[in-house]
Amino acid sequence: QVLENPTDEIPDRIDEIPKDKLVGVFCSAGIRATIVFTFLKSKGYENVKIILGGYPSLMQAIMPGKLYKKLKK
After folding, report:
1. Whole-model pTM?
2. Which helix (H) or strand (E) holds 62?
3. Distance in Å from the first CA to the final CA of the chain
4. What's the CA gap between 66 and 68, in Å, rounded?
5. Model confidence over 17-69: pLDDT tens digits?
6. SS3 sequence, 5-59?
């Protein structure tokens, strides 16, 4: 599930974020992602990663490798 602008919503919706899966956070400049990353870590989330580079990096991270290579050409 991708939330559009979740920074302010995270505290109220933290129960929707699974602790047993990798959680990737991102934003265009990395500032909000760092805030969310720090908040989640403080709440016991161990498998949290910041995806730097905004939407292009996010798409690269979630697309299957072979498909992404073909689409990139």
Report:
1. 0.70
2. helix 54-62
3. 28
4. 5
5. 999 998 988 887 888 889 999 999 999 999 998 888 777 777 777 777 655 56
6. CCCCCHHHHHHHCCCCCCEEECCCCCHHHHHHHHHHHHCCCCCEEECCCHHHHHH
